Amino acid sequence: MTYKLHYFGFKGRAEPARMMLYAAGQKFEDITWTTAEWPEIKKTAPTGTSPWLEADGHIIPESYAINRFIANKFGFAGKDEFEKAIVDGAADILNDALKDTREYILVAREMVKGDKEQVYKEKFIPTLEKGFGYIQDLVKKSGSGFVVPSGVTWADLIIAVMFCFLVELEPKVEKMFPEMAAHEKRVHNHPKFKAYVDGRKDVKLSYFSK
Questions:
Q1: CA dihedral 69, 72, 74, 80 (to 10 degrees)
Q2: Domain range holding 87?
Q3: Are 16 and 67 in contact (CB under 8 A)?
Q4: How many domains does the chain have?
Q5: Are 131 and 89 in contact (CB under 8 A)?
Q6: Sequential pLDDT tens for the chain (210 residues)
Q7: Global pTM?
Q8: Which of 28, 41, 121, 139 has the maximum number of C-beta atoms within 10 A of its C-beta?
């Protein structure tokens, strides 16, 4: 099977998929572009958004659908239906949290006007406390150091990538959530991913990275 992953040159929403393909030893074409090139590329994108994956000519849009597809194919989805449900739930909770932090992200990067301190105290931190609290409980209960007992999954990857982005945005987050910081390091230092991660240290995390 041939794979072509289409996304921006930064890590962002495509990085967990890249990490899984690398860990599986699966060759793939990593098709990237700059933010300046995106308006033209968007015109030909299957849904007008990115990322998308081509797998033997089949088009799979949306990062979570891509992650689930790759995870199920290469063993990063959980060992049974119960673990898979827990993994999906953890990923969805983090996705909701990311959406709920968007206002602070835009204000912090001065892309919209707003009271940064107020949004930080009233929305940003409460959102992280709720989402991270749930994830931390899962990791503790699993006994594996990851979201489910069988080991690292695609949910752990998106959690780790998202945590790095949030720390880049607001460095205080790392000390405020030490268990999440430990989880991030555990994921990125995992033998399956470490070499890939080490080779990507100079790559921007996201569109919002300075």
A1: 170
A2: 81-188
A3: yes
A4: 2
A5: no
A6: 899 999 999 999 999 999 999 999 999 999 999 999 999 999 999 999 999 999 998 999 999 999 999 999 999 999 999 999 999 999 999 999 988 998 998 998 888 899 999 999 999 999 999 999 999 999 999 999 999 999 999 999 999 999 999 999 899 999 999 999 999 999 999 999 999 999 998 899 887 776
A7: 0.94
A8: 139
Q: Are residues 59 and 97 in the same domain?
A: no
Q: At what angle do helices 154-169 and 15-23 cross, to 10 degrees?
A: 140
Shared domain for 65 and 96, answered yes or no, is: no
Tokens of 188: 């990125």
Give dist(CA 37, CA 179) in Å, integer: 38
Q: What is the dihedral of CA 67, 14, 160, 109, to 10 degrees?
A: -140
Amino acid at the residue 186 = R
| Residue type present at position 127 | T
CATH assignment at residue 95: 1.20.1050.10
